[in-house]
Amino acid sequence: MNAHLRRAAVTTAAAAAAVVLAACGSAKESGDKPKESGGAKGDDLTVGLLLPENQTARYEKFDKPLIEKKISELTDGKGEIVYANAKQDATLQTQQVDTMITNKVDVLIVDAVDSKAIAGGVKKAKDAGIPVVAFDRLAEGPIDAYTSFDNEEVGRVQGKALLTALGPKAKDGQIVMMNGSVTDPNAALFKKGAHSELDGKVNIGKEYDTKEWKPENANANMEAAISALGKGRIIGVYSANDGMAGGIITALKAAGFTKLPPVTGQDAELAAVQRIIAGEQFASVYKPYAGEADAAAEMAVALAQGRKLGGIAQDTVDSPTTKGVPSVLVPVVSLTKDNIKDTVLKDGIYTVAEICTPKYKAACDKLGLR
């Protein structure tokens, strides 16, 4: 692990375990008018939280309650969150930013649907004296801070996992690469990291940028790849996240694969963990959401209170529009059937009962998950 990741690493077990206890009722919907901001702020502040979509399980299940919990801790229960989800609609998210500005929130935490499209909204917030923390995706415009995972490392972890699964037969056929959406800057970083591991070591038969990260689009792309390459030639699939991996595996099954080729993923979604246990998906990437959420909350509160970020953000990142953005990057872990106990179970992300439903009981028993 490099030096800046060591500095950014956090102990996640206790915070992640608190996800199941975190109360979601503290967030107000964006239509509710928060208190007026202005002047020096203490703990009595309003944080606008804008998340990009609700199809990927992480945003509503993990990120939102974790950020709520940390804001409450940092403000002695006095801070309020005004929440809105853009449901993968960049235009709607821009409108949500405008609403937050009109309602005079003290700071914004924004996970952009489209990193370029949000730039105008970020500038409006800045002009209104509202600092902006870019969360998970590096939004363009004059952002004040950024937190995410080391996204190139995510891609490298995924690429290494696929190579491990393929072993000495890595060049005996072709792989398909199913990258994420071009509107998400993280997708380009995942792709870059994966290519740094895979190029020259495998034959890439087909590669796709998947619109809106949607599983159904990944499913259609995979059907096209099978048709173009032939079922007998596909030996592995790089999938940039777990939702798409589900669509890919559905296409593989429909095409009559008697033995599924290894498929990667990301986010450690419950369905993906179950597929890994069942041997349908080879790997995911476990991202300790508590570390990222805590960093976003800490930077947001500090900015709203007029404090500097030097004690929180030890690194800087350049966006296409802003240089030297104070940043916290959190490390990730490759997730396979061999370390489920030491990751998502140990950190309290899921329980054995949630994972080992009757359908997966036999597979869980083989792995000693009881």
Features:
eight-stranded mixed sheet; 370 residues; 16% strand; three-stranded parallel sheet; alpha/beta; disordered N terminus; 13 strands; globular
Verbal overview:
This protein has 370 residues and is of the alpha/beta class. 41% of the residues lie in helices and 16% in strands. The chain has 14 helices and 13 strands. The strands form 3 sheets. It has an 8-stranded mixed beta sheet, sandwiched between helices. Helix 3 crosses helix 11. The longest helix is centred in the first third of the chain and has 18 residues, at 57-74. The two termini are 32 Å apart. The model is unreliable at 1-39 (pLDDT under 50).
Short account of what is shown:
The protein is of the alpha/beta class.
Instruction: Provide the spatial order of strands within the biggest beta sheet.
Output: 1-3-2-4-5-6-12-11
Radius of gyration: 21 Å
H/E order of the elements? HHEEHEHEHEEHEHEHEHHEHEEEHHH
**Helix fraction?**
40-55%
User: How many β-strand stretches?
Assistant: 13
Mind describing the biggest β-sheet?
8 strands, mixed
Proportion of residues in extended strands: 15-25%
Uncertain runs with pLDDT below 50, 5 residues or more? 1-39
Q: How confident overall, as mean pLDDT? A: 90
Give the N-to-C terminal Cα separation: 32 Å
Name the structural class. Answer: alpha/beta
What secondary-structure arrangement, pairings included, does this model have?
Elements: H1 3-8, H2 13-17, E1 27-29, E2 46-51, H3 57-74, E3 80-85, H4 90-102, E4 107-110, H5 119-127, E5 132-135, E6 145-149, H6 151-166, E7 174-179, H7 185-198, E8 204-209, H8 215-229, E9 234-239, H9 242-254, H10 270-278, E10 284-286, H11 289-304, E11 315-317, E12 325-330, E13 333-335, H12 341-345, H13 352-355, H14 361-367
Parallel strand pairs: 1-3, 2-3, 2-4, 4-5, 5-6, 6-12, 7-8, 7-9
Antiparallel strand pairs: 10-13, 11-12
Helix pairs in contact: 3-11, 4-5, 6-7, 8-9
